[in-house]
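agent: user wants the full assembly modeled, not chains individually. Plan: 1) parse entity lines 2) check alphabet per entity 3) run joint structure prediction 4) return tokens. Steps 1-2 passed, three entities, 573 residues total. Proceeding.
--- entities ---
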Amino acid sequence: MSTVRDRPNRLFTGSDPAQAPNTSEYGSANVEPGHTRRRAELKVYQHERRLRTDGGLAVRDITDEVASAVSESGVRDGIACVYSPHTTCCVRVNEFESGLLQDFTNLLRKLVPTEDYYAHDDWDRRTENICPEDMDMGNGHSHCMAMLLGTAGESIPIRGGELQLGSWQRVLFLELDRERDRRWIVQVVGE
Amino acid sequence: MSTVRDRPNRLFTGSDPAQAPNTSEYGSANVEPGHTRRRAELKVYQHERRLRTDGGLAVRDITDEVASAVSESGVRDGIACVYSPHTTCCVRVNEFESGLLQDFTNLLRKLVPTEDYYAHDDWDRRTENICPEDMDMGNGHSHCMAMLLGTAGESIPIRGGELQLGSWQRVLFLELDRERDRRWIVQVVGE
Amino acid sequence: MSTVRDRPNRLFTGSDPAQAPNTSEYGSANVEPGHTRRRAELKVYQHERRLRTDGGLAVRDITDEVASAVSESGVRDGIACVYSPHTTCCVRVNEFESGLLQDFTNLLRKLVPTEDYYAHDDWDRRTENICPEDMDMGNGHSHCMAMLLGTAGESIPIRGGELQLGSWQRVLFLELDRERDRRWIVQVVGE
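--- prediction returned ---
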């Protein structure tokens, strides 16, 4: 390891210091107690749900369904891994507000233009993983969006039987491809 | 909480409604049963693998090695956390198709140009975390790519002893830096 | 499944082959042994910490606090899920080096310009999730940054009671919005 460990609680701020006063120590002693339970019994629960998406960057709020699955699992403390088994979808946690989702859609389309050339959609060249449906409507941009956005799923802590979502956090299923049959999985592990 | 919870299963679609008919309720009653096992025994298994990468945005398909590790773990139901302990690599789940990987490489290079100025590579200025090898070949762009892409790893549900990957999903190790000695870890937790 | 499974350990390289010799088989036999423990006792531990952030893309190094929580949990082998319950923050693992963080800040501001129009901040139009504080200072760009960066948290393997972070990896709390009261959670699950 580097000498980095000797300097705890370091801070970088990209803002103008005149505008953002350094009050970063707020709450540093404000630690809520954790809790450990020994000899607890393990529970693992999987729930799968199917849906038909709209195409063209559609976002579905699946929070209530995920919360129900956690409730059914009987897990009080653990982790919920909400997962998309698709390569042109993902599960993300953020706010469900239509203006924001329009903003995000616009951003994604600007960064990953649908009209650009994608070798993935070049059927004069492609020889691998042939999927006849994709020939009608290319989805190279959808894959690129999915990889840019990150992982296929999100892992969310559970405490007292509840997802530890913040006030504005919702669990979202993002369709980055055309209208399709999809599914998502939630794997709950804990006690 | 906001009033958001009162409106379950909300949908946002960024597409032209004329082109994407709202068939979003498809499958809403199509829930597959979950399963809970009580008094199960916990298993935790870690597997580490070393590799020498190619440089310049190389992608390795490590799916079969991850699946073997899950098999060796004896875990039937749980989570596999596949993790890169490097700051200029990441593990991602998507399709392994060479056209797509070329598309994604082009996109990343467009969004995070190697030839831009990076303070991380400015040895007239840098004083922290000195790594002699980086002096020969800057990697500020590689770090920026890694942070933009998201987390260091991916968490994948396991059921019946198998990774719950979709038809086209593969586990990929992405090298965003020069050719280097690397490793990845898979942590399997479950029953 | 496709025929993909028949070709293990596949490699894509986006680099000029003349510059990046294919030495990708290095270490392929260099597998470190995993370990399984049966009838282990499950431990689940949650730790929450509050902080006051600086605004304007501030990054806090929270590695030591996360490591302390893992130590307190008594978990020797498992997973730490470090989580931000906010929609305009995230937890990410990368290097803490001020030049790099400046580079990354510049990149994010270029890709997601603060001065663009965001429907999320258009109070002539918005009707959902009204948050009075946001009226003073729009944060549509902060949400878009958070969604682009990926998940709310990171999952990190634990072995021998220690986070399996690489040499340069640090756990970072990223504030993408204005100066605010925030918190992060670490959920530790294992044995």
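agent: reporting back. Residues 1-8, 16-31 of chain A have pLDDT under 50 and may be disordered. The CA atoms of residues 4 and 119 of chain A lie 43 Å apart.
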